[in-house]
Design a protein that fits this description.
The chain is mainly α. The protein folds into 4 domains: 6-203, HUPs (Rossmann fold, 3-Layer(aba) Sandwich); 212-285, Glutamyl-trna Synthetase, Domain 2 (Glutamyl-tRNA Synthetase, domain 2, Orthogonal Bundle), CATH 1.10.1160; 287-341, Helicase, Ruva Protein, domain 3, CATH 1.10.8; 346-437, Arc Repressor Mutant, subunit A (Orthogonal Bundle), CATH 1.10.10. It is 45% helix and 11% strand. It is built from 18 helices and 11 strands. The chain has a 3-stranded antiparallel β-sheet with strand order 3-4-7. It starts with 5 loop residues before the first strand and ends with a helix. The mean pLDDT is 96. The protein binds glutamic acid.
């Protein structure tokens, strides 16, 4: 048997790459990369009615977006091709015919059916689920080739996994019940059985199987919500697997290094969106400014902000000022919108909370504040504290209106840092608009 680890991700192109598929793809990828083995992408498109080339393309694009590459597949070829089941029909017919010739299968019209022998104990030691035994008489005869000439899943998967020299079959736990049937086919053809590692089910927070009811299901929906590949990658990696210690946030390289199939748990994994947000934010924080800019910019544009009024230097600096705020790129775009245009502030804030007495105080304060010779964070800070102290005012009473007039939000980076970033003229313009000067 081949010494090299060969695993495969075998999606049916009947929908976009969903969370469960991405999870399976990721675990196969991790195991391949950890062992310096190979990941094969095989398209299981025998359902001619539901399979489309578009879905095949979105699945591949979804994998690439997650940073999962493969070593053999329909797009790049390889020694074991073709990699679409619809292009391998001859092979399925050849082995089915062999079983008919040997008297192990029978024909029913154009269909070919495997006759399940009685009294056979079908055994496998799942890497995750442990020892599993099924008696053959509990199984019905297995259709190999349907009357339309197409192979069934349980048959084609065996022919392919064998012919492609797959050493580990890593897939969702919903396939555990298929495994004994597949083992029967391996045995009938006299083939060695690969190792199986079934991955735990993914549940929503309500402990029900993850589905549309829980919100987004396709990987692309998460992208569109502002999750970044590193965040989703990391989050999916710890669904059903842990590195052993408390460590939950890691890079791709660290995951490859640490990953071990034997540490995958069979306990169903809960898809915790709070954790996803947290992990995404941790990765977003550590990103290079320009890299972050590329990811945030589309969200500014989506809400119609005049991004082109600014240089890339300015925009990247705006995100640096924002710091680690925002759990997603969408939130980061939203939390920094006032750095792109004053218009959003005007929409959010009308200064109706400031009464006449307060306005008089603010007028006096800002007149002097804008007269500061040195427009530095330190000087703004010192001046404001002293000014408030001399008049026995709370600093907050000066800073809150200032924050609102400049940003239109309650929470932002330090307001003097924002003022410094926007520059004196822009700050003046904003304060003037609210008659604060
Ligand atoms: N096409 C099957 C699926 O998407 C593959 C299952 C397997 O990995 O054996 O569920």
């Amino acid at each position: 048997m081949n010494e090299q680890v060969r695993v495969r991700f075998a999606p049916s192109p009947t929908g976009a790459l969903h969370i469960g598929g991405g999870h399976t793809a990721l675990f196969n990828w991790l195991w391949a990369r950890h062992n310096k083995g190979r990941l094969i992408l095989r398209i299981e498109d025998t359902d001619r009615l539901r399979s489309t080339k578009e879905y095949e393309d979105t699945i591949m694009a979804g994998m690439k977006w997650l940073g999962l590459d493969w070593d053999e597949g329909p797009d790049i070829g390889g020694e074991y091709g073709p990699y679409r089941q619809s292009e391998r029909l001859e092979l399925y017919h050849k082995y089915a015919q062999q079983l008919v010739d040997e008297g192990k299968a029978y024909m029913e019209g154009p269909a070919i059916i495997y006759r399940v022998p009685h009294g056979k104990k079908l055994v496998f030691d799942d890497v995750v689920y442990g020892h599993i035994e099924v008696m053959s008489e509990t199984l019905k005869d297995i259709v190999l080739i349907k009357s339309d000439g197409m192979p069934t899943y349980n048959y084609a998967v065996v022919v392919d996994d064998h012919c492609m020299d797959i050493t580990y079959v890593i897939r969702g736990e919903d396939h555990i019940s298929n495994t004994p049937k597949q083992i029967l086919v391996y045995d009938a053809l006299g083939w060695e059985v690969p190792k199986f590692a079934h991955l735990p089910m993914i549940l929503g927070k309500d402990k029900k199987k993850l589905s549309k009811r829980h919100g987004a299901t396709s990987v692309y929906e998460y992208r569109d919500q502002g999750f970044i590949p590193e965040g989703i990658f990391n989050f999916l990696a710890i669904l059903g697997w842990s590195a052993g210690d408390e460590k939950e946030v890691f890079s791709r390289e660290e995951a490859v290094e640490l990953f071990d199939l034997s540490r995958v748990t069979k306990k169903a994994a809960v898809f915790d969106t709070d954790k996803l947000h947290y992990i995404n934010q941790e990765h977003l924080k550590t990103m290079e400014p320009y890299e972050r800019l590329d990811l945030v910019e589309p969200f500014w544009r989506e809400t119609g902000l005049p991004v082109d009024d600014h240089s890339r230097e300015y925009l990247a600096a705006a995100l640096t000022l924002l710091g680690g705020r925002g759990r997603t790129t969408r939130e980061a775009a939203h939390y920094s919108d006032y750095l792109i245009t004053f218009d959003v502030v005007k929409e959010r804030y009308d200064a109706s909370d400031v009464d006449e007495d307060n306005r008089k105080i603010l007028n006096l304060f800002f007149a002097e504040f804008l007269g500061l010779e040195n427009w530095s964070i330190e000087e703004m800070e010192d001046f404001t504290r002293n000014w408030a102290k001399e008049r026995e005012l709370k600093v907050k009473n000066l800073l809150m209106p200032m924050r609102w007039a400049i940003t239109g939000v309650k929470v932002s980076p330090g307001i003097f840092e924002v003022a410094d970033f926007l520059g004196k003229d822009e700050v003046k313009r904003r304060l003037e608009f609210y008659n604060f000067i």
